[in-house]
Amino acid sequence: MPFERPSLTELATRADADFDARLPKADSRQRRSVLGVLGRVHAGAVHGLYGFLADNALQGLPDTATGEVLLRWAATFGVEIKVAEPAAGLVNLTGSNGSEVDAGAVLQRLDGTEYVTTAGAVIADGVAQVPVEAVVAGAGGLAIAGVALTFASPVAGVSAAAFVAAAGLTGGVDAESPEAVRGRLLDRLRQPPHGGNAADYVRWAREVPGVTRAWVYPLMNGLGTVGVTFVMDGREDLIPEVGDVADVAAWIADRRPVTAEVEVFAPDPVPLDLTIDLTPDTPEGRLAVEAELRDLLARDAEPAGTILISRIREAVSIAAGESDNVVTSPTANVTHAAGELAVLGTITWS
Fold it and tell me: Which ranges carry the Baseplate protein J-like barrel domain (predicted)?
């Protein structure tokens, strides 16, 4: 029988009935009755105890556990929590020849995000490159090439302005959310290790920080070969970079069967362009539709998969503020080849 927590009102009613039953001629229901007050105080205390029991009942199973108990469940089954990692990369400097920048110098982005140099550099021919790392770990430290940074404190002979180098600042990953941990834990319970089956490769790929979804292609290049591709939904661009692919390949290489030849690759993004007649057509409505479509692709898009036109229409229809719509393009299900992944393209509002 499932555990049911009594309401505060039910407990107060029980307390009143107990007082009346055990004290001759007592009536705890009278206005300003001392017994009535005691009954409600008692009910409040017991209600808190029932709350503790209700929470304990949830912690007893991994699909409802929370907080530290969820992490202990995960650790018990070898599911390691993915911690936040800082973004890092190279920054271009300019200044007078021979001027030095020491390790530990702090640079700031326009939004206040701080980076620290992890090694020194010397200006030569008016320029230099210095490696930096975000002070706060997470995806917030990611930056594309050309983003301007400024030294927090002046460095003699070096221009205060610096710019992110061509490769950008990469590798920043947010800490794994509790629900993501729960999802991987349940996958581990439902798909125990099988010595290298498809589920094992998906689990290994998702153990790498930042990886949220992965797909496996058995026998992709013949006997003994396996293909693995993945995405990183926590980033603005979910398609993995070269370094991400290398990280996943290295992680899987230490866990795969020795006879397996594994190829890890990034999926090819294929823009899903749409034409939508939205009513009412407002900036807020357009943003809501776009958010619903991104959420749809995060759920349904997969290599060699199909995006159903009915699901597209549903996503537009449930957007906040929408009262009517017509999706004029696409007009049918959209199917992608192996290795191709649907991403949101251009939305034309008609």
Answer: 91-170
